[in-house]
Each structure stands twice: as structure tokens, then as C-alpha cells.
Design brief:
Helix content is about 0%, strand content about 75%. It has strands at about 1-5, 10-20, 20-30, 35-45, 50-60, 65-80, 85-90, 95-105, 110-125, 130-150, 155-175, 175-180, 195-205, 210-220, 230-245.
Length: about 250
């Protein structure tokens, strides 16, 4: 954890001789209970006629901590299906590993993550009574804005933000078919490689750096190319995991 702003109190006096008078500047700096740096600057200038001009300024700057860490999670994948009664999604467990960068003040934080995710689910066709298994790997980057509440044991955090995902490799069984490869029938892949959407996260960060969390994401892209153009399958992912902040 690196302090970007110096938190110790500094007081110094600078006297500057000027052509039209004598100027004295006093600056004091301290940290308040909210973790912000408060700076007071007082300048007194003696004019040639003997009069004195006094100027006082005040600024307040929050401390920002930068940290990074690692995460691992179990995820469950599903789809938000629109305009189709023929399909049902059966969730299966997958896994994820990732890293994160956190920029935080006392009450707020920006949280950037990068995940390597393995997802799997079963697509059931109600008409034909057949099931198709999907398994795929993706690289995912969420960006969250967090609110934080400090407790004696650590911090409660909750927030949300956008994410973007890139499919790396995947297959469909039976047939061991590449789901990201464009087929000859309609020149479309079975699953779209790119996805983006919104996510939410809630968790607790202990004082020793260990974090427990859960997250939920919903995609905006029609991920599966089935049936007709009015049918949509949009990604939904729930995750539960643990992390460690260095």
C-alpha cells in the first residue's frame, strides 16, 4: 500500500523580500478525522505606506491508497431468455481466477479487475427433449465504483459498474463443436465472442487483507444465435469468492 499524499503535519514559514514591501507566508498542513489533508496558507504583505494586507486560503485533499491483489471465485452461469419458450438453461458451476487494482479513500474506491473465467451450462430444448452442454473460457474486465464503511474488523463494501468480456475458447457437446467459429449455414458463430454489460459486487475486507465477496452480472449482448432475430439470450453470472490484498 502506497501513500500518494504525505500525511504528516508540516509547518514552515517563508519570508520573501519584495521590491514594494515585505511579504511573510505561513503554511500549515494536517490530517483530519476523515483522512483528508487540510492546508491553511496565510500571507501578510506590508505595503510601502505601512499598511498590511492579509490573505488566507484553505484547501482539502483526500488521501488515496493504491493496492493490488489476487482473487478466486466459483461462478454460476445462466441466460436471460426473451421471446422463446422452447429453451431452458440449467446452471452448472465454473471457476475464475484474477487480479485487481484498488484506488481508495476512506469511504470510496475505484476497483479494477481482470478475470480468467471458465463457464459451463446446459441448454435444454423442450420441444425435442434434448440437452446440449456448453463449456468456454473468457477474459473479463470489470470496473467498479465502491462505497465503503469502516468497522473495527475491516471494511464493508458495495458497488457496481460496467464490464467487458472476450471469449477465448469454447465447445458444444455433443459434437465437440467450436462455439466461436462461424458455421456454413448462416455464417454466424453459435456464441458471440464479445460481451459487455453491468455488474454489482458486495463483500467484506478484513484488516489482514483477506476479502470475501459475491457478485452478479447481466450482459447486454445477445450471446447465442438460435431461432430467429427476435429471440435473445443474454448472459447472467453469479459469483462467490475470496481474495487477498497485498
Amino acid at each position: 500500500m502506497n501513500r500518494i499524499f504525505v500525511t504528516s503535519a508540516i509547518t514552515f514559514v517563508i519570508s520573501v523580500g519584495q521590491i514594494f514591501g515585505q511579504s511573510t507566508t505561513t503554511t500549515s498542513q494536517s490530517q483530519n478525522q476523515e483522512g483528508k489533508i487540510e492546508t491553511y496558507t496565510r500571507t501578510e504583505t506590508v505595503q510601502p505606506g505601512g499598511s498590511t494586507i492579509t490573505t488566507t486560503t484553505y484547501t482539502s485533499t483526500a488521501n488515496v491508497d493504491a493496492s493490488f491483489g489476487i482473487k478466486a471465485a466459483v461462478n454460476l452461469s445462466d441466460f436471460l431468455i426473451r421471446n422463446s419458450d422452447n429453451y431452458q438453461i440449467n446452471m452448472k458451476p465454473g471457476g475464475s481466477v484474477g487480479v485487481f487494482l484498488k484506488l481508495e479513500s476512506k469511504s470510496f474506491a475505484f476497483h479494477y479487475e481482470m478475470w480468467l473465467r471458465y463457464k459451463t451450462f446446459e441448454l435444454e430444448n423442450k420441444d425435442t427433449k434434448t440437452n446440449t452442454d456448453f463449456q468456454y473460457w473468457s477474459l473479463e474486465i470489470p470496473m467498479y465504483f465502491l462505497g465503503q464503511i469502516n468497522t473495527g474488523a475491516g471494511k464493508i463494501f458495495i458497488g457496481g459498474g460496467p464490464y467487458v468480456s472476450l471469449g477465448l475458447d469454447g465447445k458444444q457437446d455433443p459434437g465437440n463443436i467450436d462455439i466461436f467459429y462461424k458455421n456454413a449455414t448462416n455464417n454466424k458463430p453459435i456464441m458471440q465472442r464479445w460481451d459487455f454489460g453491468l455488474g454489482a459486487i458486495v463483500g467484506f475486507e478484513f484488516n489482514n487483507g483477506i476479502t470475501v465477496f459475491s457478485g452478479y452480472q447481466v450482459g447486454f449482448v445477445n450471446a447465442l444465435n438460435f431461432e430467429n432475430d427476435n429471440t435473445s439470450f443474454k448472459n447472467k453470472t453469479a459469483s462467490f469468492g475470496i481474495g487477498y490484498k497485498f
